Amino acid sequence: MRELNCPEIPLLRLQYTKEDISFIKSGIAEIMTSGYLTMDQKVRDFEKQFSEFVGVKYAIGVNSGTSALEIILRALNVTGKSVVIPTITFMATPLAAIHAGAKIIFVDVLPEDFSINPEDLKKKIRHDTIGVIPVHIGGIISTSWGKICEICDENNLLVIEDAAHAHGASIDGKMAGSLGIAGAFSFYPTKVLTTGEGGMITTDDDRIYDLSLVLREHGKENPNFNLHTELGYNWRFSEIHALLGLLEMEKCDSIISERRRLAKLYDQLLENVAGVKCVTTPENIVSPYYKYIIYLDKKFESERIKLKLKEDFNISLPGEVYSEPCHSQPVFMKYPELILNDSGDLFPGARYVSKRQICLPLYPSLTDDELRHVVDSLKLVLESLN
What we know:
single chain, alpha/beta, 7-stranded mixed sheet, 15 strands
């Protein structure tokens, strides 16, 4: 079924305009003239703009989204305590908690929003549990957010957002990154907003803010003096990465609105496609569509679909979210003491998500014609395998 001369549709395409490149060149000249390559004015400007974007008092730039999450957890002193994490997330989430000194309790998810199953959460809380890390998979805030927060309030648990996918996501008009005691964002190249590498902590909490500044600077209370008051690390953010972040802040509204427009077009074109189920969210939840996720009928194998789209139509699909639940990762067979789940714990929602979903290409430089080609090619592949 191979189609000749199919245009390549990559899993990601980053494009910068002449104006973007001019902005970056000018900014680099300013940085080089200033004599500071890290932790100076560009970082402060980016932090200020991002805090205003999220609607929080503080934003702290760091070198990755993983670091952002670990710093928050260290600031909350999770050492020797347990943290509840959905098993459908990137391994950075549990690894950040482990490196911060916590042990992990994995909880199941709801297939309709990829987030924590509140009923399973109730069962998993222990006497030593300090917090819960909801993950806004694909940019979707949980449809059960109110229930999750209610359970956390009843059990005096902290809510820490893993918002790596959720730049611009909101629920009831309140932005991701402002919903818990703190949020962690990633700026990896695939993310909604990217600085190449980097991350951001968002919070209204004065103590988390103060400790985060110390921890990212090798534990120095004052970066100008070689006196260390905390067990910190080199989690600093560079001026050049911050410059890329400032460019993204100038374009963020157009980036997010274009992702949403493309997702709506996918919704329309896939509405009546046999064997495909689209993910829908209530009107009070707004997603930036870091991923466009669909579920396939159980008769289809996702890997087979991906392979045929690549071989026959030159279409590369981005990675799933996620094909292997965290609780099943081999590392936890090697270090079983790091997780506190019972051996009989079941994760039916996570199994459904991991086996049945694929993600379709979605980024601002994807054209409408390319998107239609993706949908038409997917239809042909499904028909051929039916």
